[in-house]
């Protein structure tokens, strides 16, 4: 009798897990079709050309190629071939029997969507209206703004949204200008006190730290020529040095230079328009450059406040995330996990850089600001969710990885083939990450060794 009861409990537990998995899958597939989805949604949009940062100054200028997504509870007519590919990827980790029917249905809708290009524009306008409504009140409701921002922020609103969600700008509009002015002046004082001094007034440790920063700045995003400008590198150097001086527990750690770049591009877009390759700091006044650096400094500080142990001695926070990633991959895709183990590949050999630089080096730079919309919307939960994003990124190439030996895997994972990625591939990574987070995060026993 006891054995029968135990078997019944196991069957019931298995059915519950299957039901939860299939429900999550249906939610994600609904998400991919532009339907409502609790919490997070997928961007359904056409890709931007690489290395384009063209902040639009008026909502009417934002069309289907802008970095704007479908809002929760809104329907979309622009379902294209990328969606059927994305649905297929999710199906590979769920119920293969349903994938063919799902893709066939998607293909039939794709033909309809191509006949109605105005659908996306209408949806974008509605989404912009929602952002505008949230930002126009006397006090911004940060939870509501966070929900919207998770799925992508219109480029011309991104500077304001990021400053608000990071807690740099206060939600009360009456206090906003005063706080920004005070914080920017505080940064100017820090530059005068710590940076604009001779080396003779610095300690040996500070001199070495400044030299290391000066070496790393020219290496920052080497494939984007904008960051090779001497004026840009000098600004990065000031921001990083002030941050390191004011955070003595960690000081400067290589990789933090990469983390400044999304802020730099986003806040500079308030002053310059057009292609990033045509931007130059010499077009700005000294006051605007100082304000730009101050905004980058304070937002970098706010972002890293929630992950300080990622950059302290031995970087225990990153090592913890690497362990969680290993466990998560083992649960999601055991064949990949076993193959990597058999070949002797340690997750630290590739994932340490992923977490250290928040995946900036693993995706094309023109996709980084969109990725960071989700990062900033996650707030204090970012380190945990980053594990799921990394698992989703890694398992994009599950089959290929299983065909590689140790050396080939190391080379592959250190140089992921994402150069031609568009927003569609990035959104698929984020949607899978959210699906797995929904499944596993509330059931930590699934990730126990």
Please explain how this structure is put together:
It is globular, with a radius of gyration of 23 Å. Helix 2 runs parallel beside helix 19 (423-440) and helix 8 (204-216) runs antiparallel to helix 9. It contains 19 helices and no strands. The longest helix is centred in the first third of the chain and has 31 residues, at 2-32. The protein has helices at 2-32, 81-92, 96-113, 118-136, 142-150, 158-165, 173-195, 204-216, 230-245, 256-268, 286-305, 316-332, 334-342, 348-356, 365-378, 382-394, 398-402, 406-414, 423-440. By secondary structure, the chain is mainly alpha-helical. Mean pLDDT is 80; it is low at 27-123.
Question: What is the helical fraction, as a range of percent?
Answer: 55-70%
Span from first to last CA? Answer: 31 Å
| Overall geometric form | globular
Low-confidence stretches: 27-123
Beta-strand content bin: under 5%
Features:
61% helix; 449 residues; globular
What's the short story on this structure?
With 449 residues, the chain is mainly α. It has 19 helices and no strands. The two termini are 31 Å apart.
């Amino acid at each position: 009798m006891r054995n029968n009861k135990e078997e019944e409990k196991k069957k019931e537990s298995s059915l519950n897990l299957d039901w939860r998995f299939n429900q999550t899958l249906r939610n994600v597939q609904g998400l991919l079709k532009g339907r409502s989805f609790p919490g997070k949604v997928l961007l359904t949009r056409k890709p931007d050309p690489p290395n384009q940062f063209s902040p639009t100054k008026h909502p009417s200028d934002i069309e289907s190629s802008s970095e704007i997504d479908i809002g929760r509870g809104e329907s979309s007519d622009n379902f294209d071939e990328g969606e059927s590919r994305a649905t297929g990827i999710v199906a590979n980790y769920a119920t293969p029997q349903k994938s063919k029917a799902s893709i066939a249905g998607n293909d039939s809708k794709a033909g309809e969507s191509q006949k109605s290009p105005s659908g996306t524009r209408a949806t974008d306008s509605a989404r912009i209206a929602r952002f505008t409504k949230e930002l126009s009140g006397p006090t911004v409701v940060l939870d509501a703004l966070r929900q919207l921002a998770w799925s992508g922020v219109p480029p011309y609103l991104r500077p304001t949204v990021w400053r608000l969600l990071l807690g740099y700008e206060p939600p009360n509009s009456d206090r906003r200008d005063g706080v920004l002015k005070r914080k920017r002046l505080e940064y100017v004082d820090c530059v005068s006190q710590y940076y604009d001094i001779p080396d003779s007034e610095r300690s040996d440790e500070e001199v070495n730290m400044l030299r290391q920063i000066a070496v790393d700045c020219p290496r920052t995003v080497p494939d984007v020529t904008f960051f090779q400008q001497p004026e840009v590198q000098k600004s990065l150097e000031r921001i990083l040095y002030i941050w390191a001086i004011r955070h003595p527990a960690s000081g400067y750690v290589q990789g933090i230079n990469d983390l400044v770049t999304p802020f730099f591009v986003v806040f500079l877009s308030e002053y310059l328009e057009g292609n990033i390759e045509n931007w130059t700091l010499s077009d700005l006044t000294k006051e605007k450059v100082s304000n730009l650096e101050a905004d980058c400094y304070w937002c970098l500080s706010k972002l890293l406040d929630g992950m300080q142990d990622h950059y302290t001695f031995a970087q225990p926070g990153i090592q913890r995330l690497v362990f969680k990633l290993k466990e998560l991959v083992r649960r999601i895709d055991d064949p990949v996990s076993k193959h990597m183990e058999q070949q002797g590949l340690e997750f630290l050999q590739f994932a340490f850089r992923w977490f250290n630089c928040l995946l900036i080096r693993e995706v094309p730079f023109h996709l980084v600001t969109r990725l960071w919309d989700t990062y900033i919307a996650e707030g204090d939960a970012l380190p945990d969710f980053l594990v799921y994003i990394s698992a989703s990124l890694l398992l994009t190439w599950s089959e290929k990885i299983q065909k590689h030996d140790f050396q080939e895997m190391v080379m592959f994972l250190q140089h992921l083939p994402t150069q031609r990625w568009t927003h569609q591939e990035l959104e698929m990574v984020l949607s899978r990450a959210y699906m797995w987070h929904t499944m596993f995060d509330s059931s930590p026993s699934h990730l126990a060794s």
